[in-house]
Every structure is written in C-alpha cells, then in structure tokens.
Amino acid sequence: MQNVTPATSRRRGNGPKSIAECGSFATLAKKADVLEALDRALRQTLPSPLREQVKFANLRNDRLVFLASSPAWASRLRLMQTQILAAAHAIGTCASSVTVKVVPQPPAAKEPVRSKPLSPAAATHLRAAAASFTDPEMRVLFLELASLAEIADS
C-alpha cells in the first residue's frame, strides 16, 4: 500500500503563504524595495535590447530568479549568467546561480471598435417604428435611438 501524505506537507515553500507567515507590511515593503534596487542594479549590466525584455523577480536562497518575455530572451540571459553573478557579487549579493522563467507579456490592450453612427435612413425607419408602437416606453426608446443618428450626422 502506498503512503499518501497530505498536499500541504509535500509543497513546502511553494504556493501562497498565510498572512501570518508574511510578516508585517513594513517588512514586505522593505523586501520589495531591496528587490527593486537589485533589479535596477543587475539589469544595468545587461545590453539594451535584453534589458527591456527581462526583469529580476526574486533572490531565492542563493539563486537569482529572472523573468523573460520569450524563450529567446531567456536563452540570451542564460548566456550572460557569469556576468550577472559577477555584478551581483560586486554589489554584495550572495548568489551562485541564475534561473530564468519565461513569462509571456500579456497582449496589448486593443482599442474598442467604434460603432458606426446610424444613417439618416435608419433614423427615419426608427421614427416610423416608434410611431407604430402603442407602448409609450418602447416609443421613447426608439425615438432616443433615432436622435442618436441625428447627433452623429451633425
């Protein structure tokens, strides 16, 4: 029979932590500031096109973790591992390896497609349809639509 252990005991160090394990807000803010300064210092040593495509994410144990926007940029960063580690040591960071994870950038936000204004003929048909309704609420709605076509023509 196989020994089954709970999922929580198998995933030590991975996944979300409880709020109690995270420490105070001041501690988290201080860690974020340190990581941001390390990001700036390490990326300054990289050539320009690579610098824009990668971001320093974390210092985990003795490993520098970077995020790259594509596998090609990740490979280029891995080729510069010696230079990155030398820069980290120069600024007092104890690191022995570099890990690069590929995290594709989200697609650029598309502008919403602007709808075409109603034509004068459509406004005429909407007014005619409004006149045929016995329900006053529907008549008002159709007339409002027809007025939008007139505003768009102005």
Short recap of the structure:
By secondary structure, the protein is α+β, with helices and mostly antiparallel strands.
Topology:
Layout: H1 7-10, H2 19-22, H3 25-44, H4 48-53, E1 54-60, E2 63-68, H5 71-79, H6 81-90, E3 97-102, H7 120-132, H8 136-153
Parallel strand pairs: 2-3
Antiparallel strand pairs: 1-2
How far apart are the termini? Answer: 80 Å
Beta fraction: 5-15%
How many domains make up the coordinates? 2
Q: Any guess at the CATH architecture of the largest domain?
A: 2-Layer Sandwich
H/E series:
HHHHEEHHEHH
Number of strands: 3
**If strands are numbered along the chain, what order do they take across the biggest sheet?**
1-2-3
Q: What's the story with the biggest beta sheet?
A: 3 strands, mixed
Radius of gyration: 30 Å
Number of helices: 8
Q: What's the CATH first level of the largest domain?
A: Alpha Beta
Mean pLDDT: 83
Output the CATH homologous superfamily of the largest domain.
DnaA, N-terminal domain
**Structural class from helices and strands?**
alpha+beta
Poorly predicted residue ranges? 1-11
What is the global morphology?
elongated
Binned, the helix content reads: 40-55%
CATH-defined topology of the largest domain: GMP Synthetase, Chain A, domain 3
